[in-house]
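Subject: design request, 376 residues
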């Protein structure tokens, strides 16, 4: 634990210092600074007593391998800064960087474990065996033990089903998850990429067994991906799930990383998707690079120019204003990106700009059936 003298307190002149010299640019209002910049009140996660920060640190880029976008020293710097300013929710998964993301996170928080609401996920294939994936009792039991070992901890605050598993009865999944909670190895349960129907079925299964329900959903949500508003947001509200919004910059499209008629730059995340020989990967790329999404990105850039700020700031500020979002998941690759993301979430987006963005991004949709919502 850092000594009290080493804790960096907010400063209103010239920016908000973080750890190791990282600074967040001046934030326009004290209320939004308290929510996203530092010294912020936490909020309860869904229908639970667990209090989490309005910003969640996503760690998909963290790893100990040479190809990791964020090597371990920089990852530790980001994590220290994030926690020092008062945020507490950190999200990883057993599949990120082949498990090394969990290892990096575990080492970084070992000396301050009690300060962290630690979230991880399971379900994605971990090997070639028939039980190396999914939400069965066999796989989840193995996956939990492996995550605990990599994270170097004896409990996980929020254990999440990374994707649905149509091959496993939901009753089996919810029963083994409840066993984890009763054993003390897991404190709370969540899901990711579930449909509205999937959420309801899981909650009903838990209720029938007097078990532990989900308290959160991770969902793809941004100005170019608003399909969850049709059914999933109301379902979460009705059934007590807080929403953790991932990909707030639309996989980089809203940050201006991709242009019409131009192939994704080599080394970019989208270029990696293009290289995957899978119809699903191709569909994701084609859906993301739809003309309508470029129109939205152009409007975001125009609003940013008019306000004298950046496109990522505008996109993040819009999402931060959505009332049903519990926490926005950011995935900075560097300490500088962390500072920029926090500043964007704290930015006071004027109401006319908010309305303009809502109008250009709104459309009547038939809710998707796969829970992913990539191209809505």
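Subject: RE: design request

Done. Sequence follows.
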């Amino acid at each position: 634990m850092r000594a009290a003298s080493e804790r960096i307190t907010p400063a209103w002149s010239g920016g908000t210092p973080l750890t190791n010299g990282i600074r967040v640019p001046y934030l326009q209002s004290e209320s939004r600074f308290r929510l996203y910049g530092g010294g912020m009140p936490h909020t309860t996660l869904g229908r639970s007593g667990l209090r989490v920060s309005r910003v969640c640190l996503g760690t998909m880029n963290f790893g100990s391998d040479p190809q990791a976008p964020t090597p371990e020293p920089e990852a530790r710097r980001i994590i220290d800064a994030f926690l020092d300013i008062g945020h507490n929710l950190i999200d990883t998964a057993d599949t990120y960087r082949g498990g090394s993301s969990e290892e990096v996170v575990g080492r970084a928080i070992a000396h301050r474990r009690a300060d962290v609401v630690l979230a991880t996920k399971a379900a994605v294939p971990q090997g070639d065996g028939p039980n190396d994936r999914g939400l069965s009792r066999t796989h989840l039991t193995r996956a939990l033990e492996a995550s605990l070992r990599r994270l170097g901890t004896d409990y996980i605050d929020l254990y999440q089903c990374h994707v649905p598993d149509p091959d496993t009865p939901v009753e089996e999944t919810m029963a083994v998850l409840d066993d984890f909670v009763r054993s003390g190895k897991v404190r709370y349960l969540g899901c990711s990429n579930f449909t509205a129907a999937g959420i309801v079925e899981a909650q009903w299964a838990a209720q029938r067994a007097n078990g532990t329900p989900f308290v959160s959903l991770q969902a793809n949500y941004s100005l170019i991906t608003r399909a969850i508003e049709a059914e999933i947001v109301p379902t979460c509200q009705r059934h007590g799930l807080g929403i953790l919004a991932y990909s707030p910059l639309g996989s980089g499209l809203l940050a201006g990383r991709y242009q019409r008629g131009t192939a994704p730059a080599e080394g970019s995340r989208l270029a990696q998707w293009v290289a995957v020989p899978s119809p699903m990967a191709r569909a994701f790329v084609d859906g993301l690079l739809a003309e309508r999404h470029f129109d939205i990105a152009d409007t975001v850039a125009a609003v940013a120019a008019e306000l004298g700020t950046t496109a990522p700031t505008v996109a993040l500020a819009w999402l931060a204003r959505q009332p049903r979002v519990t926490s926005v998941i950011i995935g900075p690759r560097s300490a500088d990106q962390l500072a920029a993301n926090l500043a964007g979430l704290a930015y006071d987006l004027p109401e006319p700009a908010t309305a303009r963005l809502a109008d250009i991004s709104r459309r009547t949709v038939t809710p998707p059936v796969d829970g992913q919502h990539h191209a809505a």
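DSSP finds 13 helices and twelve strands in the chain.
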